[in-house]
Amino acid sequence: MNKPKISIIVPVYNTELYLRECIESILRQSFMNFEVLLVDDGSTDTSGSICEDYAAKDTRIRVFHQTNQGVTAARKCGILHSNGEYLCFVDSDDTITSDALAILMEPLQRDIRDIDAVVSLANKDAFISGHEYVRMLLENEKSGSLWGNLYKRSLFKNCRSLDLDKDFPIGEDYITNLELGLKMKRIVCLTASIYNYRYNPASVMHVRTYTLAYEEKFRETVEKTLGSEIENFEEAWYKCQLRTLENLIVRRVRFSYDRPWIHRLLKLRHNYSSLTLRQKIILRVRHAVLCRYLLGIEVRIKERLKCK
Length: 308
What we know:
The structure is a single chain. By secondary structure, the protein is of the alpha/beta class. 42% of the residues lie in helices and 14% in strands. It contains twelve helices and ten strands. The chain is globular. It starts with 5 loop residues before the first strand and ends with a helix.
């Protein structure tokens, strides 16, 4: 039996209301050379049974059950059991368009060599390097989500970010993309919209509480992931840290400007000439309440200018 070209990995946790729609959208793909790995991450609703029902009807579907360990561990389980040359990730409360895999595979079927990933929702159709991909992630020019993209499975060999602990519930996609980007040579960017993200008020993303401990842990994990390559992304890394500081300010997290990494940011502010007005406000107004007020005005001015 031939191996599938694509392995679609779906981490599942208590999404019984949306899971059927998710799986149906995958099974309706016009590109049919794929397998589906449903990883039930200790669901306490009927999600596990729904997975088994679909597996009984379609031989392309395999189901794995594990105790609740978090989405990263669920994805790792799927990756370890996958057979495809490429991996595609779909969250169990979302859907993909019927031509999603066909669109992602099209550049690969044109005999274009050395493509490590195909990513959707880009600003323009283009080929970029792994270095440019990492820079775009650091400067927030590209979503850090894993879903809606296609990755060579071999990229995930010895991928350290797949071992992030369960206490790292937000940003694990971003960290994984950074690590993969450092390995990549060539990436295809597509403007195509192939992924239907569902707003789920019960998801971790929307019930999270912003804390200083988490924001600093995230910053430290990004720094560790970049490792010795960090010197090749000096300005992008600086702007990434500014975004962490912005999160603390905007989300009303209590912190001190005397913290070492914040102190270094403020000290180096004159080294970079391409900072936006928003970034300059964050650096120059060293009072969180006043800074938050000015950032709010900056947003309203931008919105008014767009309307003209």
